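Class, carefully examine what follows:
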Amino acid sequence: MHGRPRQRAGETPPPEVNKKEQAQVAELQKIIPLFMENNRTCCYSSQALDQNARLLELNPEFYSAWNYRKRAVRHLLNLESDEEVRKRIVQTELDVVVRALRVNPKSYGAWYHRKWVIQFGLSPMDAEFLLLKKLLKLDARNFHGWDYRRFVAKTKGVAVEDELLFTTDKINENFSNYSAWHNRSALLSEISKNEAAENGRVQERLQEEYELVKNSFYTDPDDQSGWFYYSWLLGQTIAPVGTHVSGCWPPPKSLIVIDLKNNSYKLPFNKLKVGKLETLPVVICFSNSVTGVNDQTVSTTVDGNDSLELEWRPVERWQKSGRKWTTNIKNCLSSSSGQTSVKILVGAVPGITSLDGQACERSWQSSFQVLFEETSSFEDYADKYDQLCESILQSRSRTFVDSPSSLQYLFPVANHSGSNNEEADGTKIWQLGLLDREIQSCRELLDLEENSKWTRLTLTRLLLTHASYNTSSLKSHIDEARKHLEMLKCLDPTHQEYYQHQLSLLSLKELTMDEFILAGKYVREGLLKLNQLSLCSLEFADRFLWVQNLDLSHNQLRSTHGLEALQLLSNLTLSHNRIGSVTALAPLRGLPLLEDVDVSYNQIGDHTVDTCRVLCSSKLINASLVPPASSQKSDRAEWHLKEGRYWEIKVVFEDLCWQKLNIAGNSAAKDVEFVDALNRALNGTRLITEAETNL
């Protein structure tokens, strides 16, 4: 229970406690064999049930004992037809539960058993409310009690509004009652379903909730209960954007020119050799992880032929769902000159759903042209594209960057936030007004409590939410949010990694929402430099599907998860990051054009615990850690690849056709057996180690 002092590790309990526990252990040792025998023989006599009740009083977590009582109750109820006798049987069970709860008020088995007994409908529900009143008076934050109250209220048919009033009273008694706040969110979620059509009433109720929760902030700004509820409330106010297409390659309305002689194709920001590909890759990114992407739900038409049977798969090849899906269109790369028109319709028929069951909310269509030319004509197109890219990069005016002919390649999917619905526009105005008021309230509270981490963190979230709705405030809000996150790293060093991750996402948000900043990061022919940005994650791949050469050096990355969507990527620089294992590179297996990878000066080999193993589809345990007795170096290397310390090298690197891999500066590069196993798995790839870089 809350408020009960805990015994610290290493502390010796008082002698009287030891004596009591020893007596209980001795009693348990006598009762358990008797219970096991009664359970085996299905003996449900009064003596057996009394022994079982005593067992549960000594140890309420004995699940087998609760299950035994369930079988006994069913047996006894089936034998009795007298209503009064049946009620006494049920009441006996409720009394057993009460005795167990006195020992442990948070016993899952006891609460579950009580719910099970109540469902027979043979006990008065008012008695349950009296029990809960006593329990919540002793421990107002017992979440088992609150969960049971929701069950009892629903069973009896108590009005949700009445339960909401009870929750309000408990919150007013103690603003730190997290369980009461949680119960309130559950009740309001149920109410909102009934009031969904009354938009004005929903907004009025949300405003009332904001006023209530702000009272808790001003009472104790450092108490997290109210802030958690406030975060939930903000999520109800700002409805999340539904599942939709967030990125694609090739870009909509693009013209891909294929050089028939040199087997390469080009479009703005790309000049790509396709010698390793006999097909044209297509990538579609969704806002959430989805399933159901196939040739039925995604219709592809090539020159009017809509009977193509394409195999869509997640870019994480071992997964059955994902945000990024890819396929290859074989009919595009024809050997004869001419022009091919490709149309893609996502949501042609229903079936694409997110993991929480949400259907893709709108269909989406894209089309692009593939032009086959001889080398001379191809060079003419290439020159025009190069001039376009150069004008974007050299100009410091937004005129070029804002032109649709160039931006469609940097931002291939239109913004989904727009709406022509008057009611939706009115809701957005109300949301922006509410966000403005809440931002001002948090700023005022921060003036009074400048060291309140919850106030700063909530203000940061409000600023970023407001910026996503109103881009005119983007720069000022991002600058202020960055200042608060930097301050939080000092105020709350325990969660410094979390705040650094948020700063990383902030940098990406600023980069992807401002075309001019993004154009400044682009260098030439598909090279994008995102180095020295303190990035901790790669949650941006759906905006950069056109990238061929990517520089992510001098960041804080721990894995390559997210890069698997960049199907055109050929050169990747990840030097001076925090990659700590080979399995962190597993997502790179899904990149068919990748040739040059630089992971120098990371932390591969420094850590004994592999936190990125989940990214690697592999066996869960190693068969053995003892190498074979053979003294042959090749035998030991082969064993390490199959069974030993470096099995992940085989899983990640086998059959890859990379030209170069740089592991210099990693601890593992000094391990001779590691390097031998890596050389054997890569089979022809140039491996750069610490020793070679020193030559």
